[in-house]
Amino acid sequence: MTGPAGNAAVTGSGWDRLAQAVAEVLPPSEVDGVWVFTPLRRESREWGTAVLSRIDGDRRRIYTARYVLTVKGRERGKFEASVQEVGSGTSEALARLVQEAHRRIDDEHPPTPVSPESWFPSVRSANHPDDGPPR
Questions:
Q1: Cβ pair 67, 83 in contact under 8 A
Q2: Which end of the chain is more exposed for a tag (fewer CB within 10 A), N or C?
Q3: Does the residue 20 lie in any domain?
Q4: Domain boundaries, position 115
Q5: What is the pLDDT of residues 81-99, one digit of tens each?
Q6: Count of domains in the chain?
């Protein structure tokens, strides 16, 4: 996956586990857009946020997926995730929504678009082990 800062990969425990949590709520095949924000690390925890979209008829449904991962200490590896539908609108409204979300969180890096196929690879391979890599 393309990472939020430069070309670093968006892989690792937090993002992979978040993709798995999202797949339990939304069928990966229906997700048509993913944008990831730069993860935030403070003390012993990491917070990650992604915005996802899916087509529902002539509208897009928008979701926010978040995780908190404990990366140090006795609770290392503890993971919490949430997926919340935050709105719906026309396809054209999506770009404006992502820009507004970026402005509100005051992050110096804009969210990075990631293809759904590369964001859900472990989910897709677990569901279709004989299909090979995503195309």
A1: no
A2: C
A3: yes
A4: 13-123
A5: 999 998 888 777 766 766 6
A6: 1
Its pTM stands at 0.73
Q: Where are the beta strands (DSSP E) in 1-135?
A: 31-36, 40-42, 45-56, 59-70, 79-89, 112-114
110 in Cβ contact with 102 (< 8 Å): yes
Token pair recorded at residue 120: 């859900």
How does DSSP assign 29-62, residue by residue? Answer: GGEEEEEEPPPEEETTEEEEEEEEEEEETTEEEE
Q: Evaluate whether residue 18 is within a structural domain.
A: yes
| Residues 6+ positions from 47 with CB-CB distance below 8 Å | 39, 40, 41, 66, 67, 68
pLDDT the model gives residue 88: 86
Residue of 59, 66, 40 lying closest to 97 (CA atoms) = 59
